[in-house]
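Quick one:
INPUT:
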């Protein structure tokens, strides 16, 4: 009875937190619009988020879990909006198009498999494994800028709102996965919590702004390379 009560509370809180997580991506996009450019920030976290939400939405339909379906339906829309916004303000449009093309192929192929696989239990198991992998990619996506963060000694290029909400959400969904005994929800969210914790630690170690000395050093290095 206690677990059932906790489950109902988690469904509500995790759903709200996850929607806020996806909406936090819009705060990052707002920064792009103010600056008029994405500068050194990577768009891969948004693309990985779009892929992850799309597959979890389908997985939610397969296991008939309304909470999973709802949050990932909303997440798919919001992450796609973030990808479009990033595309409009980035000078690396070809990279975004190439990554999105690959992601769309993955989505189409996996959805077709889920639809035409006659063995439902096998389809759920395999699709669950795929969604686990895409979740890990989404959680680790901000680390695509790790080299830049360490080299420049600042976390300006890391999406703090998205990372913070990922930390909260992954803990909630891990607990939910434990209650409903779904390992596909447990493992990726447990790892996601650890990865998000590491990324938050970077904000403690490095400032979220770039010092003038480091900036000048970086600009000089670029001029030498050119």
């Amino acid at each position: 009875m206690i677990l059932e009560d906790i489950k109902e509370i988690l469904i509500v809180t995790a759903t709200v937190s996850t929607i806020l997580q996806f909406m936090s991506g819009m705060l990052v996009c707002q920064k792009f619009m103010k600056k008029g450019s994405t500068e050194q920030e990577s768009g891969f976290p948004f693309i990985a988020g779009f892929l992850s939400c799309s597959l979890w939405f389908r997985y939610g339909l397969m296991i008939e879990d309304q909470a999973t379906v709802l949050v990932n339906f909303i997440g798919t829309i919001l992450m796609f909006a973030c990808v479009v916004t990033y595309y409009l303000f980035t000078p690396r449009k070809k990279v975004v198009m190439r990554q999105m093309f690959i992601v769309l192929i993955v989505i189409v192929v996996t959805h077709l498999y889920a639809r035409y696989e006659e063995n439902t239990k096998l389809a759920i198991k395999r699709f669950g494994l795929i969604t686990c992998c895409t979740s890990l990619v989404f959680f680790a996506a901000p680390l695509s800028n790790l080299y830049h963060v360490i080299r420049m000694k600042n976390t300006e290029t890391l999406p703090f709102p998205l990372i913070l909400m990922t930390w909260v959400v992954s803990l909630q969904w891990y607990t939910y996965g434990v209650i409903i005994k779904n390992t596909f929800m447990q493992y990726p969210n447990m790892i996601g919590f650890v990865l998000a914790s590491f990324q938050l630690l970077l904000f403690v170690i490095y400032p979220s702004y770039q010092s003038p000395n480091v900036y000048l050093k970086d600009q000089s290095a670029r001029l030498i390379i050119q």
